[in-house]
TrEMBL record:
Organism: Candidatus Gottesmanbacteria bacterium GW2011_GWA1_43_11
Domain of life: Bacteria
The organism's taxonomic lineage, starting at the top: Bacteria, Candidatus Gottesmaniibacteriota
Transmembrane segments: 48-67, 112-128, 135-152, 167-193, 205-231, 277-299, 311-328, 334-352, 364-381
Keywords annotated in UniProt: Membrane, Transmembrane, Transmembrane helix
Protein name from the UniProt record: Uncharacterized protein
Keyword Transmembrane helix (UniProt): yes
Length: 474
């Protein structure tokens, strides 16, 4: 079975067409955002002038903690080779892949839950989740829109008992994003809940994951310093889990910095952004009420059957396992890790939602799903509006474009070994926006250039014996 079904209804096609428009409207501001931060480094390591250079994409990059040749170097190489240093092609690619991911979520939920209406709603919730924002704004995270594509393709093929095809998608996916290392656990759990685990169906996945793990330990080392330091406190793990759950419900990234206690928000934040907090609270309450509370009330009339319990457990297992690679980090936690775990939550909600058919409200199930989707989209739009004003990705993309424009206008060319001075030193956003020296080296196609973030005086104090030519950003 390919990505697209041979037959589908006009209503389904219309639903996805409308969803595509709404996804575009939700993330349209990202289409005009500029390169920033890791984008510049990704562009630099993705330059190739021969077939040999392309093969070098698959060699570990010194000092880099990730290994994503198919998820970073190859997409960036294709983009800059065909279109130059413009981010729009990567935005369009992200948008297109994301829409396909939504379709794959629909297929997965349809296969597991059996309900077309809930599968369509799940695809919509996934596609319009505000956690996708950074993936749209930050080209360097394109591996995080490619990862669900390879992950879901592999899982769907496994469910269809096409193990070798599933394995090929898995192997390719491991070269896209390390998050695919959790896939063997997911497919093994699914085989278990189906009542019969055939070892031969999963052994090649586990062996591949083991080889990859050894490769990462011995050749491309996992970082255990800085933000990648592992947590030693279970309390912090619970906090991280809380944060990821809130992000999954469309709360903004900033919310993690606004807690006065585990569940109490900073009063000043509440007063300053009451409108947004109200929207996010209403949406979260509606989701929990409709997908958890009301379905559980049906237990009074009809107990939860063993197959339902197994699928509920599978949904929660998917959520936790796909989060596990990042759940234990002390500082390295970002909302772009949520889309894969979100699929597990949707499975969990879907199993409970099916219990609605045992109540007198079952005739209102589809209209209620439309209301839920509408409120979800309303919350996502508010999150995007909120993020547009305060999110670091928006701020750094704008700063990067401003600095690059001023630099190229002031200095169309620079001599070898020149140093570009970008004051003031105290403004770390400049450093983040230009990815240290990577932007200047790339824009002038000259690896001898350096960037110093500070004034001429500060540079002289730091390098009193330097004889390099200095070029100050106006």
């Amino acid at each position: 079975m390919g990505i697209w079904p041979q037959k589908y209804s006009k209503k389904t096609l219309a639903f996805f067409s409308l969803s595509a428009v709404l996804v575009f409207l939700l993330f349209k501001s990202a289409f005009s955002s500029y390169f920033f931060q890791d984008d510049w480094f990704s562009l630099r390591i993705s330059q190739a002038y021969s077939i040999t250079d392309i093969f070098r994409f698959f060699l570990p990059v010194k000092g880099v903690v990730y290994y994503r040749p198919l998820g970073m170097q190859v997409p960036f190489f294709i983009s800059q080779t065909l279109f130059g240093f413009t981010p729009l092609p990567l935005r369009i690619a992200t948008f297109s892949i994301h829409l396909v991911n939504g379709w794959l979520v629909y297929r997965l939920l349809k296969k597991i839950i059996g309900s077309t209406s809930f599968a369509l709603a799940s695809a919509f919730l996934y596609a319009t989740s505000a956690t996708q924002m950074i993936i749209f704004y930050w080209a360097a995270t394109i591996a995080f829109v490619l990862a669900p594509f390879f992950y879901l393709r592999s899982v769907l093929n496994f469910f269809d008992k096409k193990e070798w095809r599933s394995w090929v998608w898995f192997v390719a996916g491991m070269l896209v994003n390390e998050l695919l290392i959790t896939l063997p656990a997911v497919v093994t759990m699914y085989a278990l809940i189906k009542g019969k685990l055939e070892v031969k169906r999963t052994v090649k996945f586990w062996l591949t994951a083991l080889v990859y793990f050894v490769f990462r330990l011995k050749i491309v080392s996992f970082s255990t310093t800085g933000g990648y330091t592992f947590l030693t406190s279970m309390h912090q793990v619970v906090l991280n889990l809380r944060n990821y759950l809130l992000w999954a419900f469309n709360w903004p990234d900033e919310i993690t910095n606004q807690f006065a206690s585990f569940i109490r928000l900073n009063p000043e934040f509440m007063r300053g952004f009451l409108k947004y907090v109200s929207v996010w609270t209403i949406e979260s309450a509606l989701i929990l009420l409709c997908f958890v509370v009301v379905p559980l009330i049906t237990v009074v009339k009809r107990k939860i059957l063993k197959p339902e319990l197994k699928l509920l457990g599978f949904g929660l297992f998917w959520f936790i396992v796909t989060l596990s690679p990042v759940l234990l980090f002390s500082k390295h936690f970002f909302s772009y890790y949520v889309p894969l775990p979100l699929v597990g939550l949707l499975i969990f909600f879907g199993v409970l939602w099916q219990r609605i058919r045992y109540t007198s409200s079952h005739r209102y199930a589809t209209p209620l799903l439309l209301i839920i989707c509408s409120v979800w989209y309303w919350a996502a739009m508010n999150t995007m509006q909120f993020n547009t004003h305060i999110h670091w990705s928006v701020r750094r993309a704008n700063r990067s474009e401003l600095l690059v424009t001023k630099l190229l206008n002031a200095y169309p060319e620079l001599p070898n070994n020149a140093v570009v001075l970008i004051p003031p030193k105290s403004d770390e956003e400049n450093r983040w926006a230009l990815g240290e020296s990577n932007a200047v080296k790339l824009l002038y196609d000259n690896s001898t250039l350096e960037t110093f973030f500070g004034t001429r005086t500060e540079y002289s104090l730091a390098f009193p014996d330097s004889q390099q030519q200095l070029f100050v950003l106006p």
